[in-house]
Design goal:
Elements lengths: L1 H15 L14 H8 L3 H7 L6 H6 L3 H14 L5 H17 L3 H10 L13 H12 L3 H12 L4 H15 L5 H4 L8
C-alpha cells in the first residue's frame, strides 16, 4: 500500500512538472517537498504556509497547479485529518484548480467539500457558500444568485465574508474564476 502511495506521489510530481509560472524555480515542487508537507500540521500547511512548498505559499506565488498537487498529496499522505480539515482542503484544491483554468475538475472538488453534517443552527452556512461557488464554476447564474441572496441574509462574520465573495462572483459572472475571485470584482 505504501509503495502505491509513493508511486502516486511521484507521478503527481512528474505531472506538475513545467506547469508553473516560469523556469526560475518559483513553482518547483519535488517529491521531497511533498513528503515534508505531509509532516506539517493542517494549519501550517493550509492556513499559514510555513514553508515554500505548502499549498498556501505556492498559491501566493500564483503556482496554482502546484498548490493543487500539494493539497492532493497532503490529503493522501497526512493522517489523520479531521472532517472539517478535509472539507477545507477539498475546497481549496478546487479553488487552486479553478485558478489554473480547470473549472470542471474544480467544480467536482468544490461539490465534494459540502459539509454533510451541517445543521441549520450552525453559525457558518458553509454549504450555501459551496453551492454558490459551484454554481459559478458551472455557469449556473440562477443558482449563484439564490446562494448569494441566502448567504447575504445570514448573520456572522464568516457568512458576511463568504457572501462578499459570492457578490464578486456575480459581478464578474462569465469571467475566469481567477479574475472573478480577485478584489477588482468585490464591489462591496
Amino acid at each position: 500500500m505504501k509503495r502505491g502511495m509513493l508511486f502516486a506521489l511521484l507521478v503527481s510530481v512528474a505531472l506538475v512538472g513545467s506547469a508553473g509560472a516560469g523556469d526560475d524555480g518559483v513553482c518547483t515542487l519535488t517529491a521531497a517537498d511533498l513528503l515534508a508537507n505531509a509532516k506539517l500540521s493542517f494549519w501550517n500547511f493550509d492556513q499559514t504556509g510555513t514553508t515554500p512548498s505548502t499549498a498556501r505559499a505556492l498559491a501566493n506565488r500564483s503556482c496554482y497547479s502546484e498548490a493543487a498537487a500539494a493539497t492532493e498529496n497532503f490529503m493522501l499522505l497526512h493522517a489523520p485529518l479531521k472532517n472539517g480539515e478535509r472539507i477545507i482542503l477539498l475546497f481549496h484544491e478546487g479553488q487552486y484548480r479553478a485558478m489554473a483554468g480547470e473549472e470542471h475538475v474544480a467544480a467536482m472538488l468544490i461539490a465534494a467539500s459540502k459539509d454533510l453534517g451541517q445543521k441549520p443552527s450552525d453559525p457558518l452556512d458553509w454549504n450555501t457558500y459551496v453551492d454558490g461557488t459551484w454554481a459559478f464554476l458551472t455557469n449556473d447564474r440562477s443558482m449563484l444568485d439564490a446562494a448569494s441572496e441566502k448567504l447575504s441574509a445570514e448573520r456572522g462574520r464568516g457568512n458576511i465574508m463568504n457572501a462578499r465573495v459570492l457578490h464578486g462572483l456575480q459581478a464578474c459572472f462569465g469571467h475566469p474564476y481567477k479574475e472573478a475571485y480577485s478584489s477588482k470584482c468585490f464591489t462591496h
